[in-house]
Here is the input.
Amino acid sequence: MSSYFQRHIFFCLNQRPSGEDCCANHGAQEAFEHCKATVKKAGLAGPGQVRVNKAGCLDRCAGGPVAVVYPDAVWYTFVDKTDIEEIVESHLRNGQVVERLRLADDVGR
Amino acid sequence: MSSYFQRHIFFCLNQRPSGEDCCANHGAQEAFEHCKATVKKAGLAGPGQVRVNKAGCLDRCAGGPVAVVYPDAVWYTFVDKTDIEEIVESHLRNGQVVERLRLADDVGR
Here is the structure.
């Protein structure tokens, strides 16, 4: 079956209480906003194309900030806007996973 | 490649401003919490198994409340706790899509 969104990326924007480390402390909100704007500007947003989504805790906090692209089930960690732009251009537009930004399989909470 | 979570369900919990209709007005929070508790009680929660996640607007508001199961890319709408329990038992545990609760393909914002 086909996916309503060809690629659906979820950013963890969770803010953990009482100073525990979390994606929100590592620029997650800015990355989400930059991704959303970049996808829109590239004309990739919408049904049959790409959706950039806010999410609660994705439970892989040790690798934060994290995002996951479905239905590919590819997880990323990222540092700056250039990383986000590479994910958009390479993966979200062209389906090429950005290997250098992949989250290691054993990273959990 | 295998998925970090075998099945990852996202519930739209978005509250739209100024009275626009949205999932949050249709029991989305309660459904999320019931799903999370049911999955935990069933021993299905965790890496390699199931993750129940909060999400922002999934942009299919006209079918709200909605949830999506990845990597399967199956979208659901639901009414009550029985619906949630059926999604957990049938789909999240056994991989059988609950056809009667599927969101129609043409439902958008």
In short: DSSP finds two helices and four strands in chain A. The radius of gyration of chain A is 13 Å. Chain A has a mean pLDDT of 94.
